[in-house]
Write a structure and sequence with these properties.
- There is one protein chain.
- The protein is mainly α.
- It has a domain of about 40 residues.
- The chain is built from three helices and two strands.
- The two termini are about 35 Å apart.
């Protein structure tokens, strides 16, 4: 068998999600989400307070979750737009 079997493929065959800076950003988002949605930081928000009539804990939980989703969409979409600009320059 050829030891260099995968080296002959073009870059178009690779998935862009697992390359370079995007992969690092996705791993950082995963780690940040893990920390944000786990016990030590969630315990900080478990208070008997209300913000605009909403309890603080669920508000903080869903706000953090929404922030993670927005950041994930930003990272993925910015990679698509950068890739589109690179492909248009060829």
């Amino acid at each position: 068998m050829n030891a260099c079997k995968g080296r002959g493929r073009s870059r178009a065959g690779e998935t862009s999600v697992f390359r370079g800076l995007v992969a690092q950003r996705l791993v950082a988002l995963y780690a940040g989400g893990w920390v944000l949605l786990n016990f030590p930081l969630l315990a900080l928000w478990n208070r008997e307070l209300s913000v605009f009539g909403l309890p603080l804990f669920p508000l903080a939980l869903f706000s953090g979750w929404a922030l993670l989703i927005a950041l994930l969409a930003w990272v993925v979409e910015s990679d698509r737009s950068e890739r589109g600009e690179r492909d248009a320059g060829r």
